[in-house]
């Protein structure tokens, strides 16, 4: 048996970021991953580091997380491809342009740099966009990166500080004070953190996490040149809808001269097959915004499963019925962005420190306490 202060189950971007933060704090850590670091949803994500203002809790966590990424950026290897390109939220009509004015105020109130571009300024900023767009909101400090290598960087930094990295080790069972690996090895620990993304309910039944499938496509080199991460404002309707499949235009410039194109959402779908009809819808939408895509070849298409909670916020904190178990899961479509802030929030709670933002909106008790009361009264 090996003893640690903390065993983290799941080496995606969230578990790896937590291993990095805890090991820097002198905590003895084991990071246990069934496959390889970043091989889960993290390998399928787009890598947009984005401040999102759908609600106050989302804005607090995303904007803080983006600023933490910015602090880390100089220390990241080039292969992580961190690029502070900013985001343009595109307004296709006057109604969406009205939303831009509300959003800019929201962002600025949270200390996030944002500005409004009219139609002429937008087309000067991004000449490859289709004519006719009304304007855009530019969020200056957003960035993009390559998620699996970011996760690997965190894990290797933790390992260099003495953390034990265990890959190819599926965890079979979580117990109070220990974690059982499928080969029978038992790791004892004062704290256990479940960061297994969409697989978390397998190890802790009852967690309110369900898959939300998404498709992405990467083009060959020679794609229209774009300078920002581009997202249609209609994305917000698609991202937060809960019924039916939806698509929205989302294009990310890569330093390789390729474009990463998204995205789709299929709530509750845990399959990994590419849905050709949905992909076609996604590409038609992309071509409406970027006409230069016509005739360009795709290099690869893939899907991934976002770990979604009912309110779109992650579960960060102690399990209310199992005080020995900490949760760091359920990040839906924002887990690359919020890995840095999530890691700090969980580490601060574990070590009894105050965090710069209020951790309560992400407390697992908001779901799990209710379900346990219902059981008690059943
Ligand atoms: C199409 C798509 C686009 C996206 N785009 C973005 C984006 O632009 N920006 C953004 O912020 N987010 C984006 N996301 C969301 C983001 O990818 C996820 O929120 C994030 O990767 C979740 O990270 P995680 O560490 O919680 O989970 P994962 O990366 O899934 O990591 C969990 C790990 O746990 C391991 N595991 C599972 N079971 C066990 C077990 N029993 N024992 C040991 N290990 C286990 C898995 O192998 C996996 O490596 C996107 C997602 C998709 C699908």
UniProtKB/TrEMBL annotation:
Keywords: Oxidoreductase. GO terms for cellular component: cytoplasm. The keyword Cell division does not apply. InterPro entries: FAD-dep_OxRdtase, FAD/NAD-bd_sf. One of its GO terms (molecular function) is oxidoreductase activity. The keyword Nucleus does not apply. Residues 5-348 form the FAD dependent oxidoreductase domain. PANTHER family: FAD-DEPENDENT OXIDOREDUCTASE DOMAIN-CONTAINING PROTEIN 1, SARCOSINE DEHYDROGENASE-RELATED. This is D-amino-acid oxidase. It comes from Myxococcus xanthus.
